[in-house]
Amino acid sequence: MLPAAQIDESFFSDRSGSDCISENGAFCAGWALDNLDRYLGPALEHIVLVLVSVGAGFAIALALALLSHRRRWLVPPLTVTTGILYTIPSLAFFFLLLPITGRGNVTAVIALTAYTLQILYRNIVTGLANVPAETKDAGRGMGMSQRQLLWRVELPLAMPEIIAGLRIATVSTVALATLAVFAGAGGLGSELISGSNITFRTGVILAGGLAILIAISFDLLLVGTQRLLAPWRRVRPV
Amino acid sequence: MSEPLLLADLFGSFANAFDFITSPQPSAFAGGEVGGPEQVLSKLAEHVKVSAVALTASLVVALPLGIYLGHRGKGEGAAIAVGNAGRAIPELALIAFLVAFIGVGFLNVTIALAVLGVPPILTNAFVGINQVDRTTVEAAKGMGMTGAEVVRRIEIPLAIPTIMSGVRAAAIAIIATATIAPLAGLETLGDFIINRNVFGDEGVLAGAILVAGLAIAVELLLAGLQRLLTPRGIRVQRLAAATA
Predict the structure, then answer these.
(1) Would the pLDDT of B28 be above 80?
(2) A43 membership: H or E segment, kind and range
(3) Residues of chain B in Cβ contact (below 8 Å) with chain A
(4) What is d(CA A199, CA B100) in angstroms, rounded to the nearest whole number?
(5) Which end of chain A is more exposed for a tag (fewer CB within 10 A), N or C?
């Protein structure tokens, strides 16, 4: 983790020699170009936080969905449980975990992972439930075992819904991860809170803009993945 | 470090947090007293007030628009895109943007929170209305219903579960983001969390417990409202589908 940025006098000056920074202009391009490197570390932390949280969330949600796939009675209690975890605001979650896991990445990852579970679990379950019974019958008729049916028929056909869930979870987590700075886990939020302060306009635009850019990049990446994995069908996330 | 000791510490932390809520504590940092029911209630009231006004504002803007577009079957791309774009707005950057460019205060925070509430409500209202079976709508028209009657008596009741899940998502996002409103000069429950140097560790934990409790309470309330609003016929149908 990078240390919180130190503010020295050079922070609020830019080489273009204009008065933009001293006047706190809407967006000081000169300063932004000179100081872009300050944002790379936090941006990278941000991306890692999102990847680890969504990755862990996906693994857990997939396991829960497969567990409840043949045991339908598990669906309502798991839906309620993941729903409660989704409802608890991340900032509150960070500080509820503080006495248990302390400040740092672990706390942020646990809270963000918990947030993704409901979205991912719901979409995987819906995707599996929407596979037509006739298709499954056809697979069984071809002599497939339950396991083969799951991996070669049901999961591939559920792919559009699963990826739609991943898109929602990933984009929301990129946005939420700006709060990870309160858990001591860095990310782009650190440039808003401790890097300078939230009245510095250029800094707000840069940090916020980078977060949105990361969200869009992840989203496009997942859309591309879906076209590769499920070229026969397109589903919009709702 | 032994396990029982850790558990005792943990129990102690939460016990201190509950003490902070139930009675004022001497502040270790700022002097004077902090916490107690009076302070908790005033911040809770501020939190609920700003969230309720913001949610109402987003409902007033997004609900009629979503229902209209869904009924007409127009603007599908736009309605979906707004929902997707809304999810990408970083909450902290939104509040920072407010402070840096527009200014602090109740009205400004309300507008920012309402902006977060619009996308889920708009998208879900559109999708809910738009996915109502066309043959059902044709049948209603055949019975002599006007466009407005179709919307009020057929489309909206059938779309209630989808519309309400959008309202719930908006409410959760607004309550969660109101937690960082103290950065914009509004003393919501988040004040306990963000200003540790005033309220101490027990205040931070108390704030987290209160915010989580508020969010869950509102979610349960809206889930109950959804049950009340959903026509009984659909409720039975859904139950059957869930257990099938």
Answers:
(1) no
(2) helix A29-69
(3) 9-10, 13-14, 80, 83-84, 87-97, 99-101, 123-124, 127, 172, 175-176, 179-180, 183, 190, 193-194, 204-205, 207-209, 211-212, 215-216, 219, 242-243
(4) 4
(5) N
Any CB–CB contact under 8 A between A215 and chain B?
yes
The residues of chain A scoring below 50 in pLDDT are 1-9, 14, 238
Rounded to two decimals, the ipTM of the complex is: 0.86
Contact indicator for B116, B173 with CB cutoff of 8 Å: yes
* Average pLDDT rounded to a whole number, residues B120-134: 93
- Give yes or no for a contact between B184 and B108, defined as CB atoms under 8 angstroms apart: yes
In this prediction, residue B200 carries a pLDDT of 86
One of 3.30.365.10, 3.30.470.20, 1.10.3720.10, 3.40.605.10 is the CATH number of B36-243, namely 1.10.3720.10
Coil vs helix vs strand at B26: strand
Global pTM reads 0.88
